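Aim 2, interim progress: modelling of the fe (ii) ion-bound target.
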Amino acid sequence: MIVVDETLNKKWNWWPLFPLYPYGKKKTILRELIPDQIWSLEQIQGLYYVAVPIRMTVIKVDNGLMLINPLPPIILPSASGLEHKIGLPALSRIFNDTEIWLCPGQWSFPINLPLDFLGIPSKRSRILFEEGTPHIDSFKWSSLGPLNLGLGRYQEISCFHYSTKTLHVTDAIVGIDSTPPEIFNFDPTPLLFHSRERGDEPLIDSIEQRKKGWKRLVLFSSFLKPGKLNIPPLKKIFKYSFKKDLRNWRSHFGIYPFLWDEDWESSLVEIMGKDTPKIQIAPVLQKLIFPRSKEVLLKWLENIKSFEDMEYLIPAHFTAPIKFTIEDCQKLINEINSQKWDKLPEDNKFLMGLYKKLFELGIIPEEVNL
Ligand SMILES: [Fe+2]
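Predicted structure of the complex, ligand included:
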C-alpha cells in the first residue's frame, strides 16, 4: 500500500459542494489490486462519522490509463451517485487531453444543468452506449437500468476487463467483511466514535474497538437506521454529554444520540462475512431502488453471467478485489428469485418506510422502468 503524499493531496477546497466527513481534509491511499494492471485510490467519505471508504479504480489500457469513478482532488459510469462524480471537473482540467465517457442521463439537482455548467467539458465528453463504448477490444460493457427515480434516474454502467478477468461495478454489488479498511489506519476516529455505548465513554483505540466500530458503520451504511438501533430521548442524550475530557470536536462534545440493543450484532449475519467478504446487492439499493424492478436487476446479472472466465469483482465501495465467478453471480440471481428477497427483516423497516413515503408523496413514480 502506498499513501499518496498528504501535503499534496490532503486539502480539497471544494468540499462545501458536497459536505461529507472528513470535509476539506482528504487522505488518499493507493493500492495495487492486480499487479501492473489495476490500482485503486481510496478515501473516506461520510456524515456524522458514519464514514465508509470510496474507491476510484485505475486500469492500464492501450496508450494510457482508464479511470473509473473519479475522486477529488485527483470516465464516469454512474448517473445518480453524486459521490462518484464530484471529482470529475477538477480531474478533467488537470488532464486536459483526456477523453471522458459518461453514463447516460447525467442529472443535477435542483435544476438540470448542461454538462459545461457542471464543469464537465462537453467537447471531450461522450455518452456510453449512445456514442459507443471505449476500448472494446479490452472491455465488455453492460448497463444496469435506467430506472426512473422521479427526481432523476438510476443507472450504472459496468465493464468486464478481459485480460485481468475483473468485473468493475460502482454501487450495485458489494462484498463486506469484518476487517476495517486500511484507510482507517490513518484516522480511526469514526470507528472509535461508534464503538461506544454512551457519550460519556472516552474514545479508546484498540483492535477490538476498531472492529466493533466498523461493524456499526456497516450497519449504518446498509440500513441507514438499523433495526437494533434506538435514538434515545434528548434528556438522556444530554445526561451523558459534555463530560470532562470529551468536550472537544473529536468526540462531538460527548453528544452520542445512539443506543444499541444488546443483540445488535445479530443484524450482521446477512450482510457481513467474517474472513471472506459476503457478496450481495448493496442493501440500500435493494430496498430503495429495486423493490419494483427486480427484472431489471436480473437482466443485468444474466448479462454478467455470460463473462465465462470472470474471476474478480472490483466495486467502488467495501472490499476489492473480491473473488467473483459466474457461480457467485448465479447465487445472487437465486437469492433475488427466492422468497427471502421479498421478506422484510426488522433492519429494513426504516428503508421500506422511506420508500413507501416517497411513493405516497409521488416522488417515486408509478412506472419506474424507462
Ligand atoms: Fe457509491
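The longest strand covers residues 50-61. The chain has a mean pLDDT of 86.
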